Amino acid sequence: MTGNPQTNSHPTGATHGFAPASLIESGTQQALRVAVEQGLPTTIADLCALVRIPSVSWAAFDRAQVVASADAVAALVRELGVFESVDIVQAGIPGSTELGQPAILASRPARNGRPTVLLYAHHDVQPPGKDEDWESDPFTPTVRGDRLYGRGAADDKAGVMAHIASIRALVTAVGPDFDLGLAVFIEGEEEFGSRSFATFLEENREALRGDVIVVADSNNWDINTPAITTALRGNVTLRLTVRTLAHASHSGMFGGAVPDAMLATIKLLATLYDDDGSVAVAGLTSIDVPTPDYSEEQLRAETGLLPGVTPIGHGSILSRIWSQPALTVTGIDAPSVDNASNTLTPSVSVRISTRIAPGQSAVDAAEAIEAHLREHAPFGASLEIDDVDTGEPFLVDTSGWAVTEARSAMTDAWSTPPVDIGVGGSIPFIADLVRVFPAAQILVTGVEDPDSRAHSPNESLHLGVFKRAILSEAFLLGSLNERTGH
User: Fold this and answer.
1) How far is CA 21 from each of CA 85, 167, 269, 405, 479, rounded to the nearest angstrom?
2) Using CA atoms, how far apart are residues 392 and 363, in angstroms rounded to an integer?
3) CATH class of the 234-288+323-391 domain in this structure
4) Which residue of 118, 153, 204, 465 has the smallest Cβ count within 10 Å?
5) pLDDT average per 10 residues of sequence, the chain (486 residues)
């Protein structure tokens, strides 16, 4: 997932095994449960093999590693033996002569009136960051307690393996000649903005068409409680360059009369926030939705908020994360402290990342941010805004039969019903899926929990959550394989 996931409570003391099977569990469910359990060692071994491949899709990293990851995933999909075609596909990036990173696309048609399910995940990962921030090597999968550590162990190679393992279980339980239609799309550049995604959809529309789309790239409420993600914020990112001088000048000789770019940048960025830290950009909207209880103590425990540092914003804490805009300065190009000299800086560049609430157009939000910056530029500073990227927010329609089927499958697999959650991060391509396949029902699920630390050092996967997520999807596929009249 792009950006930080939602955070929630996570009770301690939970086991990572299955809860006892229901007394009314069907024969198919019993067979699926046994198949998932027996296949788990192989599933975890395959996941570890994927984690060892440093498939960072960012431009500055070795593209060959993403190719190697795509080859490894394609091999796993082919070994399932149930698809008419399994291909590694690249699509063009709009406005460029470049191709996007390799994706895996597999499909088999439905038979006898059964629905078709498209399973989505991504095999690329975030950069690891500094090795010294990790307790073990980021690309050496390491088990400590109930958790598997490594970059991509949760986001989203575990999502890839949840799909693989659930199909394996279905084949074991009912045989390879089942009637359910399946398509698998494992993307290779979700962490780098899904730049070729729209083109990929258009070029592979028929192969990707499904009645239900399962996106395995989100969170669960805690390690004991599953979740269905029903709200996702969108995003607007941009680079802002502030200029006040044609060249650097001596700060002692001219400081006090000449505004340098650092002063102008600091004052301009400060206008983006109210006194409580909430976003102060006119035109950025919020939505009013109920949120579960979530205390400041939980926020502190899960984020590492230092003693004496207060949370920002207003309203319930989860509303600030799920349904209000948030603006973060994620990077700055300016003289470093080690290279600082007594100089008035002529220009400063910053990267601004804005999360926008469901219900707002990303284009409208980008225009509002640019208008605010230009209106509040201090001292007549020159502004350049470029490298703008947008992603639409999303609200899931929970009224369809697929959500009902998913809730039932999760309840049976976890022995507790799922909760509906919002997510502070963004999965912008979902809006593209809805645009291209307006009749499809979207299910946003996942294998992560509040301690997974996706995108951060020491990313990890709770193996109990992983097992139950696989079983949930296996139950869903087994149920849909018996469904007619959709």
Assistant:
1) 36, 20, 55, 18, 16
2) 9
3) alpha beta
4) 204
5) 44 40 74 98 98 95 97 98 97 92 98 97 96 97 98 97 98 97 97 90 94 95 95 94 96 95 98 98 94 92 92 96 96 92 96 95 96 98 95 88 97 96 85 89 94 94 98 98 83
Two structure tokens written together for 7 = 């955070």
Residues paired with 354 in a beta bridge: 236, 327
CA–CA separation, 154 vs 478, rounded Å? 24
Q: Which pLDDT does position 21 carry in this prediction?
A: 44
Domain residue ranges of the chain, discontinuous segments joined by + = 27-232+393-480, 234-288+323-391
Close Cβ partners of 436 (under 8 Å, ≥ 6 residues apart): 201, 202, 205, 208
* The residue type at 228: I
* Contacts (Cβ under 8 Å, ≥6 apart) of 75: none
Q: Which class does domain 27-232+393-480 fall in? A: alpha beta
Q: Which amino acid is at 241?
A: T
Question: Could you tell me which of 145, 160, 194, 157 has the C-alpha nearest to residue 53?
Answer: 157
User: What is the pTM assigned to this prediction?
Assistant: 0.85
